Amino acid sequence: NSYNGSYYILYKMNNLILVRHGQSFWNKERRFTGWADIDLTEQGKSEAELAGQLIKELNIEFHGFFTSQLKRATNSLLIILKVLNKSDTEIIKTTALNERHYGGLTSLNKDEIIKKYGSKQVKIWRRSFDVSPPPMESSHPYKDKIKSDVLSESLRDTFDRVVPYYEKSIKPLIYSKKNILIVFHGNSIRALLMKILNVSKEKIVEFEIPTGNPLLIQFNDDMKIKKYKYLDKKREKKIFFNV
To answer: Is position 101 annotated as part of the catalytic site?
Structure first.
């Protein structure tokens, strides 16, 4: 029994759970969101609640909660925390985990942009590692709302802020046998998984992140990956590993 008990305790440690926020209004309308602060739809709230229920079933104790500064992510985390009966807990918000900045594409409909520029060009803007969308000009309707000197970001730019933050502020917690939950965005998750799962910049082009489906990553004591899986099998997406 002591061996089984020890194994049970070990299983409960070194866990990282990543959740992409639930559906936002602009997800539903197929608009480029980026740094625009758009809230959740009712479906998005339901997705966050389901994510919370799936996480609760793991029956693990969390030691840190991280999210971005954008309300579609922070509100998703608040819904999850309510399901976990952790509503009064401290959460850490940081712009380092924000979605990538979609520049001049922000607020525009994806289908209309595809008609205008072609699906090949739009895929490059959306999914490539090195190419940034056109910069946000001073006349853009969201320029005053976003208020940033950053005018556009490639996935590389997103990688260059997400990964150092993870290495400094989150990885040491996992290494010290803590369980961590991060609720953030499709591209900031893609950037982090490039690092954690060793995904190549060629393969990341095809990498889709489902909304509201928790991804559990369990590490060994030396921070090697022990296993990883999506908790909602019905909405599971293929994960590339060592590619």
So the answer is: no
Say how many C-beta atoms besides its own lie within 10 A of residue 12's C-beta. 15
Angle subtended at Cα 198 by Cα 167 and Cα 168, rounded to the nearest 5 degrees: 0
**Which residues are CB-neighbours of 229 under 8 A, at least 6 positions away?**
215, 216, 236
Task: Quote the CA–CA distance of 218 and 135 in Å, as a whole number.
Answer: 38
Catalytic residue among 21, 101, 153, 185: 21
Q: 0.90 exceeded by the pTM?
A: yes
Q: For this structure, is 63 an active site residue?
A: no
d(CA 149, CA 157): 14
Active-site residue, selected from the candidate residues 47, 99, 101, 185 = 99
Residues 6+ apart with CB under 8 A from 113: 32, 105, 122
> Are the C-beta atoms of 185 and 20 separated by less than 8 Å?
yes
Task: Give residue-wise pLDDT tens across range 60-103.
Answer: 999 999 999 999 999 999 999 999 999 899 999 999 999 999 99
